Amino acid sequence: MNFGDILDAWEKQTAIPQGENKRRQKKYTENKKAASVENKVDEKNRINALLESWLDSHGVIDKDAEMSESPIAKRHRLPRRHTDAIIDLHGLTQDEAWACLEDFFQKCAARSFERVTIIHGKGNHPRSKGALRKLVRVFIEKCPLTGESGYHTAKFGGAGATWVILKK
Predict the structure, then answer these.
(1) Domain of 35?
(2) pLDDT of residue 99
(3) C-alpha to C-alpha distance for 122 and 105, rounded to whole angstroms
(4) Are residues 86 and 128 in the same domain?
(5) Could you state, in chain order, the average pLDDT of each consecutive group of 10 residues for the chain (168 residues)?
(6) Torsion from C-alpha of 63, 66, 67, 72, nearest 10 degrees
(7) With contact defined as beta carbons under 8 Å apart, do 77 and 70 qualify?
(8) Among 39, 46, 139, 145, which residue's CB has the most CB atoms within a 10 Å radius?
(9) Which element (helix H / strand E) includes 134?
(10) Do residues 96 and 135 lie in contact, with contact meaning Cβ atoms separated by under 8 Å?
(11) Which residues are CB-contacts of 168 (< 8 A; sequence separation ≥ 6)?
(12) Which own/partner contact pairs does 72-76 have at CB distance under 8 Å and 24+ positions apart?
């Protein structure tokens, strides 16, 4: 027996019966499709859970109702609306605080935020006399991105925190 005969015998023993390869391929693709459908369903459920969580924490805003809302009603609603972003200036120098405010308002405007909060403290230090609080007021007056502003209620920081409505 030569090597060629050995190879022929091997091929006959290991040969797949006619049509068997197609059946295996069909079964493989069916299993792959079923797994793909299951993965898509799992991914869709995961995304829905994330969306539900986000909606629970941020609430739903009816844009159609806002469009029909009068400017006066909108002006009364925005100060009571939840804050989109918060910046805390405690421990910063006036120059650092100014730079942080510029960067903060640019990012907030780019993200189309409506209401932000600036935490600056009440300025109880005898030498500063509310330096950051005054700096925030000057910044708000000079910044073209800022609109209406005011201090929070005592429950949310009082005179140590300022809310600002951003212009569109």
Answers:
(1) 3-57
(2) 92
(3) 21
(4) yes
(5) 82 68 71 72 81 75 61 59 84 89 90 87 67 86 83 66 83
(6) -170
(7) no
(8) 139
(9) helix 131-142
(10) no
(11) 112
(12) 75/148
